[in-house]
Amino acid sequence: MSFQAKITEPEKNIEDFNRLYQELVSLLQQQIKYIQQGNIEGMEKIAEQCAGYVEKIGLMKLLDKEQFEAQRLQLRDLYGKLCLLITDQKQKTTEEIRKIRKTSKTLDIYRSSV
Predict the structure, then answer these.
(1) CA–CA separation, 65 and 30 (whole Å)
(2) Is 106 a member of any domain?
(3) What is the dihedral of CA 50, 56, 62, 63, to 10 degrees?
(4) Residues 14-26: what's their mean pLDDT?
(5) Residue 27 in contact with residue 51, Cβ under 8 Å?
(6) 62 phi and psi angles, rounded to 5 deg
(7) Is 78 within a domain?
(8) Mean pLDDT of the residues in the chain
(9) pLDDT band (50, 70, 90) for residue 13
(10) 32 Cβ partners below 8 Å, 6+ apart?
């Protein structure tokens, strides 16, 4: 007679949560790396994947429990870092656009005076 451990439903949920959580953390870290490299397209593709993981994790309602406090805080920190990096990238892009517009105006003035 062989012995097989019987996995209860709560244990299965925790296993599923841990798997989804690790995959989400990995995706968020990849997003952070992409935004640091200026790869906005790569970051956006991963954002689509993250949405599915966030939805599944949210439906499990485990992050509200005290035993998952560390995971909740890590996700909050990763999303906070990502938001800061996106804001920084947005400011850099805005500055580049401003420079391009200024250069374009200068060229227009030059062309009209020649």
Answers:
(1) 27
(2) no
(3) 20
(4) 95
(5) no
(6) -90, -25
(7) yes
(8) 89
(9) confident
(10) 78, 81, 82, 85
pLDDT of residue 3: 47
The string over 27-36, giving b where at least 16 C-beta atoms fall within 10 Å of a residue's C-beta and e elsewhere, is bbebbbebbe
Which pLDDT belongs to residue 77?
97
Determine, yes or no, domain membership for 48: yes
Residue 46: CB atoms within 10 A of its CB come to 21
Query: Domains in the chain: how many in total?
Result: 1
Tell me the whole-structure pTM to 2 decimals.
0.77
Contact 87, 35 (CB under 8 A): no
Amino acid at 48: E
Count of Cβ atoms closer than 10 Å to residue 68 Cβ? 19
Helix (H) or strand (E) holding 22: helix 9-37
Range of the domain at 50: 9-86
Q: What is the pLDDT of residues 55-84, one digit of tens each?
A: 999 999 999 999 999 999 999 999 999 999
